[in-house]
Amino acid sequence: MDNGKLPVAILGATGAVGQRFIQLLEDHPWFEVRELFASERSAGKPYREAANWVLDGGPPSRVGELVVQLLGGAVSSPLVFSALPKEAAVELEPKLAAQGKIVCTNASAYRMTPDVPLLLAEVNGDHVALLDRQRATRGWSTGALIANSNCTAMPVVMTLAPLRQFGVKRVHVVSQQAISGAGYPGVPSMDMIDNVIPYVSGDEEKLETETLKMLGTFDGEQITPLDTRIGASCTRVPVLDGHLVHVSVELEERPTHAQIREAWACFRGSPEVASLPSSPALPVVYLEQHDRPQPRRDRMIGAGMATAVGRLRDCPLLGYKYFALSHNTIRGAAGSSIQNAELLARRGYIDSFRPN
Ligand SMILES: NC(=O)c1ccc[n+]([C@@H]2O[C@H](COP(=O)([O-])OP(=O)(O)OC[C@H]3O[C@@H](n4cnc5c(N)ncnc54)[C@H](OP(=O)(O)O)[C@@H]3O)[C@@H](O)[C@H]2O)c1
Known about the structure:
Blueprint: E1 6-11, H1 16-25, E2 31-38, H2 47-50, H3 61-65, E3 69-70, E4 79-82, H4 86-98, E5 102-105, E6 118-119, H5 121-124, H6 130-138, E7 144-148, H7 153-160, E8 168-177, H8 189-192, H9 203-214, E9 217-218, E10 223-224, E11 229-236, E12 243-251, H10 257-266, H11 271-274, E13 284-287, H12 295-298, E14 307-315, E15 319-326, H13 330-346
Helix pairs in contact: 1-13, 7-9
């Protein structure tokens, strides 16, 4: 920690989410990328050769020179961001946590594990205290495993959290998910151009379960999921970044549209969460125009960390309906993971590291 920053390792550094981690961590005030891990395909090469960089510009020059290591080798950084597929994550992530690492994962393997916080800092920042139980039951003194949400659940959770005060009874979601959500190289172009694919493997089940865990309550021992029913249908569309969802919701109370919009506009994380380096000033931003939110125009609101919402209107079936949009590799993956690590640092869960 020569410059006072906490060394960070990225697992799956060459993929869609791994690249986003590297981009977002450039010049991060607390964390510095020191180690990169990926498969045999990339190991042994400098990052600039190993990664087919798909974001704007190129990788930061210092990181571009780091040699990618083979996954499974020793990790020395205390903080580990994982952008691995589930199959590669499942054994390794708890192993690293048992070795004392703070592991912030984007993989789905442990999202629904009872002692793993599924954190979306503005919505359920208090769930971070579940780590005390995780450490006690697993015998981990400095290590921890925390997950962040599926990228499609993100805009749903962000917009339903402010509506909990009205009693959320039933929810129906239809998604239009960007191709970067399938990783790199993802869906073949001949399947994707001029097309919509009405199937995204596993995402409907994840939306119907992870959403309720994130919106649930923590009593100091365990998380009780929100008592609401959700039905989801997921599609893949030829958009590069940004998952758009259409949400229909039934509420116990009958708030006016103005009250719902007020709830979104006033929604904030705790002051502690709001002060984290990656937190957007406004987590939920309502767009007035009749034809918004749109992925290309609105995914970078709040540096990609805000959820854009629009077209609130009456629904003849459930009462209310609207569209919401989140950037899938920023708010839906790397950006949220970094924000979660910032929260852990603030709360003192990262051994011998206290941020300024
Ligand atoms: N894309 C999104 O919007 C998004 C959002 C939320 C969560 N997630 C989750 O985040 C994770 C990463 O997604 P992604 O979209 O970035 O995937 P991706 O583009 O396919 O990247 C996968 C990364 O993992 C590495 N990898 C794959 N198999 C490996 C193995 N057996 N051993 C070691 N390294 C291996 C790859 O390395 P090589 O390049 O060397 O093969 C690459 O760096 C997944 O669990 C995904 O479900 C993705």
